[in-house]
């Protein structure tokens, strides 16, 4: 949230204040995630899928130095000797524990020194210069980068064995534990504006804004819940190859996967491990830790499909009354606590149907926060895409190897969460905070009158 501004504040003052708040919030969260464990836990690799936490800590500082001190301020490198160690493309995660990484105390000291200098740069930088500094983009990019690694570190905490020293309150009191509404909502067909050319801190793959023609479709009102997914399990969904893409079925058999990650049977009930605690699987929460292949198989079993990325974004942003694409499902205002479950405020998804204040014009809920939602789409560039400020953020990942996820999870900070934000991963990934909702085609002649009628019924 941006603070209220006074009449005497210039646009540069507002941008500086916003950038400062974003940087400080990210560092506060980084400290929370790295100071709650011992040094051996920081340096250990808890999964070959993830880096040691101490690598993330120093990498955050190194990226801040590269972009804010060197690229923006033109200062000489503080530690050029460590650049190769913290280059994410030079060393895959599995081999990072073998590198001569900075020990925890030195990593903290380095990140803190970089931050002190970066705040001096923020104070003196003009926001009307190069594309890197216009609207404070570089500072927003670095705040987003750190928050993305904070989510990665939270995933590492979930993968760790033993107790996890992280706490958060129960879901917000306003969460609707027993939501009763239609199972699906209609999104009318027609064009809409996808992506953005105006969001100042949007990343390159969100750009440029462009028109998309999307036929009418129905989409789930809420994400698929644990209770619904258990019906798929009970019906032998993991034993029936006809529901699965061939590659997914082969991966399932090879790795002996029989349920979402962290689930197991205890007697006749399902339990899960969540941040070191074993608990019954809550039926009303969105299903979590499922791969794209699992989401796709469930959708086929249910006689439905995953929404395309364009369909998801239209459901989340398009207002059929005004024809406008909004920043968020609820409008253009920055997220409030009653809009969505974001920012590691809680360590779990809220019950399906929560956050009525965050409802989209189409009537769908929880399109932001709670769980990342798999879509049917490959991660591809938009028409007119231009890499900025470096090709390795998006361009090297484009293609059919990665599937798009949308919406953000409970672990995503609001600075990273908007209606145009695109996430992507391999379709086998399950350690991420991923869920999904399903969709189906609507009759091509169904129109706006039907949408109005459905909204009146709801």
Question: Can you describe this structure?
Answer:
- It is built from ten helices and 14 strands.
- The mean pLDDT is 94.
- 31% of the residues lie in helices and 13% in strands.
- Strands 12-11-10-13 form a four-stranded mixed beta sheet.
- With 458 residues, it is α+β, with helices and mostly antiparallel strands.
- Helix 1 (11-34) runs parallel beside helix 5 (137-159), helix 3 (53-72) runs parallel beside helix 4 and helix 3 packs antiparallel against helix 5.
- A hairpin with a 4-residue loop joins strand 8 (318-319) and strand 9 (324-325).
Rg, Å, rounded: 22 Å
- The strand line-up of the biggest sheet is 12-11-10-13
**Low-pLDDT ranges:** none
Number of helices: 10
Largest sheet: 4 strands, mixed
Through-space gap between termini: 31 Å
Element order: H for helix, E for strand: HHHHHEEEEHHEEEHHEEEEEEEH
**What name goes with the CATH superfamily of the largest domain?**
paralog of FGE (formylglycine-generating enzyme)
Q: Into how many domains do the coordinates divide?
A: 2
Tell me roughly what share of residues is in helical segments.
Answer: 25-40%
Q: What multimeric state do the chains show?
A: single chain
Quote the CATH topology of the largest domain.
paralog of FGE (formylglycine-generating enzyme)
Helix/strand/pairing category: alpha+beta
CATH architecture group name of the largest domain: Alpha-Beta Complex
Overall CATH class of the largest domain: Alpha Beta
Q: Strand fraction band?
A: 5-15%
Strand segment count: 14
Mean pLDDT, rounded to whole units? 94
Global shape:
globular
């Amino acid at each position: 949230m941006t603070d209220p501004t006074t009449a005497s504040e210039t646009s540069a003052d507002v941008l500086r204040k916003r950038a400062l708040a974003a940087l400080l919030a990210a560092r506060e969260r980084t400290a929370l995630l790295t100071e709650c464990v011992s040094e051996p836990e920081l340096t250990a690799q808890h999964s070959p899928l993830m880096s040691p936490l101490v690598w993330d800590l120093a990498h955050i500082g190194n990226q801040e130095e590269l972009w804010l001190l060197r690229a923006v301020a033109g200062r000489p490198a503080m530690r050029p000797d460590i650049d190769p160690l913290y280059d994410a493309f030079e060393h895959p995660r599995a081999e990072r524990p073998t590198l001569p990484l900075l020990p925890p105390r030195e990593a903290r000291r380095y990140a803190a020194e970089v931050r002190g200098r970066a705040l001096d740069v923020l104070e003196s930088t003009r926001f009307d210069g190069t594309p890197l500094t216009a609207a404070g983009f570089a500072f927003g990019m670095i705040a987003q980068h750190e928050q993305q690694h904070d989510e990665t570190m939270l995933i590492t905490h979930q993968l760790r064995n033993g107790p996890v020293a992280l706490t958060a309150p129960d879901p917000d009191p306003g969460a609707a534990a027993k939501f009763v509404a239609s199972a699906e909502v209609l999104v009318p067909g027609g064009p809409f504006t996808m992506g953005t050319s105006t969001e100042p801190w949007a990343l390159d793959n969100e750009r440029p804004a462009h028109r998309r023609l999307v036929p009418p479709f129905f989409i789930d009102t809420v994400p698929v819940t644990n209770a619904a997914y258990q019906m798929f399990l009970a019906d032998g969904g993991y034993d029936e190859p006809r529901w699965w893409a061939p590659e997914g079925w082969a991966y399932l058999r090879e790795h002996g996967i029989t349920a979402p990650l962290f689930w197991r049977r205890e007697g006749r009930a399902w339990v899960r491990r969540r941040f070191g605690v074993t608990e019954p699987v809550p039926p009303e929460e969105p299903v979590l830790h499922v791969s794209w292949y699992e989401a796709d198989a469930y959708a086929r079993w249910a006689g439905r499909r995953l929404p395309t990325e364009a369909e998801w974004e239209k459901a989340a942003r398009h207002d059929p009354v005004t024809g406008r694409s909004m920043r968020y499902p609820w409008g253009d205002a920055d997220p409030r606590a009653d809009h969505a479950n974001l920012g590691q405020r809680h360590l779990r998804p809220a019950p399906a149907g929560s956050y009525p204040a965050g409802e989209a014009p189409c009537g769908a809920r929880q399109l932001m926060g709670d769980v990342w939602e798999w879509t049917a789409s490959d991660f591809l560039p938009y028409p007119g895409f231009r890499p900025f400020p470096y090709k390795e953020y998006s361009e090297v990942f484009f293609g059919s190897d990665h599937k798009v996820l949308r919406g953000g999870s409970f672990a995503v900070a609001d600075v990273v969460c908007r209606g145009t934000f695109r996430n992507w991963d391999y379709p086998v990934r399950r350690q991420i905070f991923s869920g999904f909702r399903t969709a189906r085609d609507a009759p091509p002649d169904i129109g706006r009158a039907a949408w109005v009628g459905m909204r009146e019924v709801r």
